[in-house]
Structure formats: structure tokens, C-alpha cells
Amino acid sequence: MYRPRTACSKLHAITPSTSSKVPTIPIASTSGASTTRCSWRKHNPLQALTYLALKVVLFPVIWISGLAYLSYGLWSQGAATNAGLTWVALVHTGAAFAMAVFIILHIYLLTTGHSFREHVKPMVTGYDDIDLSDAEAAYLKQDEPQRIRP
Questions:
Q1: What is the DSSP string of 22-47?
Q2: Mean per-residue pLDDT over the chain, rounded
Q3: How far apart are CA 141 and CA 150, in angstroms?
Q4: 132 near 16, Cβ under 8 Å?
Q5: Backbone conformation region of residue 64, classed left if phi is above 0, alpha if psi is from -120 to 50, else beta
Q6: What is the rounded distance in angstroms from the CA atom of residue 32 to the CA atom of residue 22?
Q7: pTM given for the model
Q8: Which helix (H) or strand (E) holds 16?
Q9: Cα separation, 37 vs 43, whole angstroms
Q10: Which of 29, 67, 87, 150 shows a CA-CA span of 20 to 30 A to 38?
Q11: For the chain, first and last CA: distance in Å?
Q12: d(Cα 85, Cα 60) in Å, to the nearest integer?
């Protein structure tokens, strides 16, 4: 899939000499002001930051604390390390609760907005139906025809 690393530009600003030819989708925000989102970027900045924190902080904390908890017999020094085990257990349990909240929140979000089927279908099939402007459709037909599903 074509995912350039450069910033998005508005469709009307794309020229043949532009190195970053990324179609954009204008969307309306809750404040009423319209903003432009790249068609290849599926998350807003807060969502992207949350998923980054999940991958960079929460997953490693769960793994490291879980392995430390599991291998307590290898690094324990008797009663002197009980406080260390307590902290490992608290960190691991806290991370597990954070993961549980994340999962429960996402299951709840599946039930809001569109139908449950409309939210799950793109996850299962890998395709999402989106409304394209004439300019976006022309761009995809010309430059990226493999991304258009018949």
C-alpha cells in the first residue's frame, strides 16, 4: 500500500511536479471548521499518540513486568526482595487493568455511530467504502488504480 511519509497537502495543490501526491479527504470537525485528512491516515493526532503510547509504553511494561514476575525465583534473595516483587506485581496489574480498559472502550466504541457491522466489516475484509470527490477518484484512477476495488 502506498503510504508516503511526507505531510499531506490539499488536492488542489497537487501538481505533476509535486513529490508528495497524496489525496486528501476534507472532513468537518465538531467545532464546525473543516479540516483535511489524508486518505491513508486513519487516526487523528490523539488517536495516533494513544496507539504509540500503547505500543511503546504499555506493551513493553506488560511484557517486562510479566517476565520479571514469572522469573521471581531466579532473582529473589528471600525476604529482602519481597518489596521488589510487590512493585512488579503492582506494575503488572496496573498495566493489565489499563489494557482491559482499552479493550472494553474499543468494544463500546464498536456499538456507537454506524452499525456494528459497518465498523467490523473493514476489519474483516480489509476494505472500507469511502466517498471520494471527483478529484480524488481521478487521482486514484490515474496514479494508483490498484487501490480501487471493483
A1: --EEEEE-TTS-EEEEETT--S-HHH
A2: 75
A3: 11
A4: no
A5: alpha
A6: 24
A7: 0.59
A8: none
A9: 9
A10: 150
A11: 17
A12: 18
Phi–psi pair at 51, nearest 5 degrees: -65, -35
Q: What is the pLDDT of residues 15-70, one digit of tens each?
A: 333 334 444 444 444 444 444 545 556 778 888 899 999 999 999 999 999 999 99
Angle at 111 between CA 108 and CA 113, to 5 degrees: 120
Which ranges of the chain would DSSP assign to H, the alpha helix?
45-53, 59-70, 72-75, 82-110, 116-125, 134-143
Beta bridge pairs of residue 24: 38
Going along the chain, which residue ranges are E strands?
A: 24-28, 34-38
> Tell me, what amino acid is at 24?
T
Do 42 and 128 form a contact (C-beta atoms < 8 A)?
A: no
C-alpha cell at 13: 495543490
- For the chain, the domains span 1-39+131-150, 45-122
Dist CA 150 CA 146 (whole Å): 10
